[in-house]
């Protein structure tokens, strides 16, 4: 059974940083594409960043230069978020799937809240 468990969310002031983690189990992590999505109140869920099994990354324009996605051990994907803005406030979800020209999500985590506010 696939399980994705996020952690690291919280309250941070504008300009601050947070690092989200997603621990995966029940999958062959090394051959899985992984991504982070977010959903703000009243808005659709949007793709923030993705990383292929070979390490290629892609980012939403709104976070380029501020966020970094990485996979640094056998079963964990990270999202380093710097220079946070109030508009980054959302529930952040870890996802497994395919994130090329066609995006297919096969598993979701439960989400972690990120709030950017002074």
Task: Provide a short characterization of the protein structure.
The protein is mostly beta strands and 118 residues long.
Task: Tell me about this structure.
With 118 residues, this protein is mostly beta strands. The chain contains no helices and 11 strands. It has strands at 3-7, 10-12, 18-25, 33-39, 46-51, 57-59, 67-71, 76-81, 90-99, 103-108, 112-116. Strands 2, 4, 5, 6, 9, 10 and 11 form a 7-stranded mixed sheet that branches. Strands 1-3-8-7 form a 4-stranded antiparallel sheet, with no helix packed on it. It is globular, with a radius of gyration of 13 Å. The mean pLDDT is 93.
Strand content: over 45%
Determine the fraction of residues in helical runs and give it as a percent range.
under 10%
Q: Average the pLDDT over all residues and give the rounded result.
A: 93
Q: Pairing-aware structural class of the strands and helices? A: mainly beta
Distance between the termini: 40 Å
Secondary-structure element pattern, one letter each: EEEEEEEEEEE
**Main sheet overview:** 7 strands, mixed
Low-confidence stretches: none
Number of continuous helical runs: 0
Write down how many β-strands occur, each being a DSSP E stretch of 2 or more residues: 11
Shape category: globular
Report the C-alpha radius of gyration, rounded: 13 Å
Question: Which key phrases capture this entry?
Answer:
118 residues; mainly beta; globular
